[in-house]
Write a structure and sequence with these properties.
By secondary structure, the protein is mainly alpha-helical. The chain has 13 helices and 3 strands. The relative contact order is 0.07.
Length: 275
């Protein structure tokens, strides 16, 4: 009787939500999954997981095939398959109907994008160029009349070469490199420590800094504009947007604590140079 009551609760929506909650992913990724799954939940949400048939899934996917939505179709199928695999792992069902669907035979697959490869010669030229950029004795920033009045300086494209060279030594996503802060760098122990909330898998990331990576960081420290290591590789517009965002966050935090004074806005504007 207990198993019967349990099975009565096992709708696709119930199992899907349970599967999502047990994933070791960030909240933003969970929200992305929830958004992508809306078509699945609309059709299968209230159905018992054991009552969903092969034909139900084929008919559902065919709607996307006939409209040429091949990438979405394949994405939804993969999500369905993962949910059914989860159900098997927890003995909610004895077999997965997805195992009976030979997707590559029945349906068209989305086109695969073949990205251009970096040839050995190109890579060699790139390393030579990045070395020239890194070991240039001159200040890497170029000032103009406008930039003399602010710490936001004209973009110098040599910095991109340095940033990508740093990526060769440190296996980080480009998002993490652009948002790398000086607080993440432990020069004393020669260690990179990125807190969990900045990482895609929501886990603290630690990595020893090689001598080459340290050399780049020491060079960038001389060009320091703010808390971000590669802030000077961003456009003035992006840096200004980041400052506005940080200033707004600090203002909201002060407001929450009841610490707003008459000159708070002026102080924040001076601190983040957004006036």
């Amino acid at each position: 009787m207990q198993d019967k009551d349990k099975n009565a609760k096992l709708t696709f929506k119930y199992v899907f939500n349970e599967w999502i909650e047990k994933q070791s992913i960030r909240e933003t990724t969970k929200k992305q999954y929830m958004h992508q799954s809306k078509p699945l939940l609309k059709v299968f949400g209230n159905k018992l997981i054991q009552d969903i048939t092969k034909n139900d899934i084929l008919e559902f996917l065919q709607r996307y095939q006939v409209r040429g939505k091949l990438a979405i179709c394949y994405q939804l199928y993969r999500m369905l398959r993962r949910v059914f695999d989860y159900c098997i792992a927890y003995d909610y069902i004895e077999y997965s109907v997805c195992d009976r669907i030979k997707y590559k035979i029945i349906f068209k697959l989305p086109d695969v994008k073949h990205h251009k490869a970096i040839l050995e010669k190109d890579l060699k030229d790139f390393v030579i160029y990045s070395n020239k950029a890194l070991f240039n004795d001159l200040d890497i920033h170029k000032h103009n009349d406008i930039s003399r009045t602010t710490r936001y300086l004209t973009l110098d494209y040599r910095l991109f070469a340095i940033m990508y060279k740093f990526n060769m030594y440190m296996p980080l996503r480009i998002h993490n490199i652009l948002n790398l802060e000086w607080g993440d760098i432990d020069f004393k122990n020669k260690m990179l420590v990125i807190p969990a909330y900045k990482m895609k898998l929501n886990k603290e990331f630690k990595l020893p800094l090689s001598s080459q990576a340290l050399e780049i960081l020491e060079f960038m420290y001389k060009q320091k504009l703010d808390n971000f290591v590669f802030s000077c590789a961003l456009s003035d517009k992006v840096r200004m947007q980041r400052s506005l965002y940080n200033a707004l966050n600090e203002y909201l935090e002060l407001e929450k604590q009841g610490l707003i004074a008459r000159d708070t806005q002026r102080k924040l504007a001076n601190k983040y140079l957004v006036s």
